[in-house]
Amino acid sequence: MSDGFHSLDQADPLCRMSADELASGYRAGTFSPFDVTKACLAQAEEIDPVFNAFTFLDHEGALEAARASEARWVEGAPLSAVDGIPATLKDIVWVKGWPTRFGSLVTSDAPQSEDAPSVQLMRAAGVVFLGQTTTPEFGWKAVTDSKAFGITRNPHNPAMTPGGSSGGAAIAAALGAGVFHLGTDGGGSIRIPSSFCGITGLKPTFSRVPAYPASPFGTVAHIGPMCRNARDTAAMLKAMSGRDRRDWNQGEGQLAPLEDPATAITGSRIGYWTVPPAGKVDAEVAALVDAQMRRLEAAGAVIETFDLPADDLLETFHKHWFSGAAARLAPYGPAEREKIDPGLREIAGTGAAYDAKTLVAAQVERAEFGARMDMALADLDFILSPAVTVPAFEAGLEVPAGSGLQRWTEWASFSFPINLTQQPAGVVPCGKTEAGLPVGLQIIGARGQDAKVLSFMAAIEGM
To answer: How far apart are alpha carbons 331 and 281 in whole angstroms?
Structure first.
């Protein structure tokens, strides 16, 4: 990396393959899960000094799991279609035998005694875990830097942020350090880095992927897949989805299956959402998304203007998010708080000052908005929008320099409303700015219709 950059094209060919291609190679004996895992670990070691995507890599554990997967493929008895596919896990979910630091200096470095449900499901499918990826402290903001692990950088320009809070996962995906990458999304933390890094990601319908322990940020927080294409994203979602009784929020209902038929662009009814509840849309972002919408219309999609059916959503979200931050920091005393990101301390202070009436009113506002969005998506197939109001900006900042914005939520305002509604929302690339920075298109579907959203994402990729 003499120029300080590294692209996917420079990676080992084994690092550039999709899950389907890897499974075909395993089946034919052309290469093995061990070969692929070694290549992906080497790629992770190569990129990390520049981009800071990982908190640690589990060479021994990954290679042991890869050998076991290889033996199963040789015997013709893989655990699943994704047995032996290399993956990374964000430093915010429990992994048995690994510490979970949440990007913080105040957390324990003791190894966890059990897997989070999503990790357990993927392990049961034979997925190989390479290591943990970076996050801002407790995943509180939509960029990735922390006192514990430093600044994470964009794969298209290391001076820029990859977004967050799943920034390390997005870099690992973009640069071939694994195929599947677990992210979390409480206000855009899968979709924003997917957009900034030029990959595909999905915030699933809430409770599609089980979560334990429950997030202090409550039911705005989702777990989902981040990959290089929609087909891999769908395969990962299947592997990490299921019922787990540790997750009380899943309830006893059943979501629509993930095997829906392919969705055609022709005839799809689309609401085009262009006015966010906060901030302004960058001109290049708007132009690239407009161009994609014109391509969809030319392909037979029926497009109409869509406006969010609510006001003051920024404040509604802040009341949920800031009170969650207060709960997250409640166990820590003054000495420990001095080690915590000042921005996180600030929003936690605001959240701690809310009274019960304010929080209940915010919950009612959320319910009313969510119901209106459910109604809207009973009449529309999808709502499309820019994924983010801006392209990637300088790494290490919470908001773009000179923007006049105060908090990340003000430029992440195409994402956080859909955490309030719990609907599935995916991101696919739709072009690059003149500076070479990716821009993403957001595809929102009705609750439970994750497969339909993923199918439409794949259709857009195939245009």
So the answer is: 38
Residue type, 312: D
pLDDT digits (tens, 9 = 90+) for 190-209: 999 999 999 999 999 999 99
Distance of alpha carbon 233 from its chain centroid, rounded? 11
Say if residue 165 is preceded by a cis peptide, omega within 30 of 0: yes
Inter-residue contact 273 to 307 (CB < 8 Å) = yes
Pairing state between β 302-306 and 269-273: parallel
Q: Which of 52, 283, 42 is nearest to 162 (CA)?
A: 52
Phi, psi of 372 (to 5 degrees): -65, -40
- From the list 1, 382, 53, 18, the residue with the least C-alpha distance to 193 is 53
Rounded to an integer, what distance in angstroms lies between the CA atom of residue 89 and that of residue 458? 24
Rounded-to-integer distance, Cα 208 and Cα 223, Å: 9
Name the residue among 136, 122, 221 with its Cα closest to residue 179: 122
Per-residue pLDDT at 5: 61
For the cut 50, the answer to whether the pLDDT of residue 3 exceeds it is no
